[in-house]
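Example 3.2
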Amino acid sequence: MKKMMGKTLSVTVPLTLLTLGSGLALAADAAQEPVQEIVITANRLKNTKADTPANVTVITAQQIKERGYENVAEALEDVSGARVMQGGIGAGERHVMLNGDERVLVLVDGRRVNNSMGSMVKATLDLNTLPPMGAIEKIEVVKGGASTLYGADAVGGVINIITKNTEETTGTLRAGYGSWGNQDLGVTVSGRQDKTGILVSAQLEKASYTKYKDHNGDTKRWPGRSDYTQDALSLKVTQDFDANSGLTLNYDYSNLEGNNPYQVNYYSPSQIDKKTNNVGLRYDWNRNLDNKGYVQLYRNYYSYYNLGGMDETDWAVEAQQNLKLAENNTLIAGLEYRHAQAENIASYTGTQGYNNKALFVQDQWQFLPSWQLNAGVRYDDHSHSGNRTTGSVSVNKKFSQDSNLYVSWNQVFRTPTIDDLYYYSDLSLWGWGKYVGKDNLKAETGNVWNIGYNFKATPKTDVSINAFYSLLNNAIEWREVKVNEYRTDSYAENIQKEKKRGLELSAVHHLNKHWDLEGSYTYVKVEDNRADAGYTRDNNYAPNYYQFGVRFHDLRWNLSLRGRAATGLSRKNYGEDRYLTMDFNARYKFNQNWTGYATVYNLTNAAYAEQGGVVGGQDSYPMPGRRIMVGAEYSF
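Structure, written as tokens:
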């Protein structure tokens, strides 16, 4: 396996590095005129990418349509430097890392959807709970700290999922079937009558069992149950009062039922029943004018059953007002109040929670025709962690519509999750372990720096270079204590410092109007310092991560081969120190209404894992082996 992997990487990596460049790891059709992508998430203002002092990727509506992503996690795997981590097979959670950090804030139409309970990792959102792909217009990914504008969790970056508008009457039906009883069914319809619009999207995903390949080269069926069923519904209703004001009602529901076995060496599966019910109401005024603003109220409900019941209810009210001080100067001011409450029958003593009040101000000033300065300040008052004032500064130099240089600095104030503080579970009688939170944990504080350069190396080649560095005090981790060969206990704790540094190189090259090459390389080094004992490397992270793709597109066909690879993995945490996996997708447009598609996941049937854990030289959480999905879409 290692020999074959080495040979494959020796071909793949030079090809990737040879084609390096682009702020996007996503190709546009070279036959079309360049379109200046508008980004909102980075500054909470509409800017082109070249006017944005951040490492930004936009997954556009056209890319979503042409590539037929099954879910948000699959779409994010196409973003340079973004690493999607799946906890093995079945109903396992999926998290995303940006700049090597799991502390990522996820928004849906600007509404926070991260849960407040958290988990044993730094991520606070399972990507499986997000809206159906049929409801999504585009996805904005901002890598780097953004805590001043968005608060806790925005350490590694922000992902904003923007749903489709309700301006046109359209619809799509999709049905896909594949290996292991896999099904993917979806329907999306939207329409408008006078000043009222509506969008409805539903999706059903199912699997009966799972197979994987171990490091001995044997393909096996998972020994326990690994079936799951997930259904999701997204509803959006808009009511305009005039051209510049209106109400928007959003409702997102998901239900995931199935089995997520802990480790491959256990026959004991963990049955999961996970539900989300999120609703939001937003009022916008002056939305097409300079001094626009909004107020929104939303409630997120999260229910999780796994060896005990867990329920969480978050609600928040947020308001923002833009003030155009001059032709080249815009001020943003906002306030937030968020209340989080969780009940865990098995693991909390009663109901636990917190509230947070926040104010923020940010100024965007174009002090010279091609220079922009952003400066902001935020004040948080947290019921557990106290109050804190944080700041941010970023500078952008625009050279052309396709080229810019930026540098940014953000301060961090990330408070403990409810699980970090209050979780207690003792499963030692079943041979597993104890999980113990700590109610006097301190908030994480520190600084995040980014510097990047986007440019055109040739008329057909876009290049992006981004370096990042963060230093956090009182970083929160779940320390594992091995009791015996089969049992490991975990304890939440503050470590003195966590240092992270890395580099991202990415590129897209348009060979001609039909062929695109793309590739990226991300280097991450994470080190922890516990009690002044000196920095030691955190082996849970892959230091070298590669992404590459070859795409063909014309009026009928969309073909793509994409790959992901990692090297330098610790053999203490993984069965092998490297892996390479590839997916192939083919879409054929029969006419204006009908499109057929086929996808082969893990094309080479590679044995690999994205989440660390080793038992007897084998990955504890192996990823699924090769599987095939075939289906059709009908649009009207």
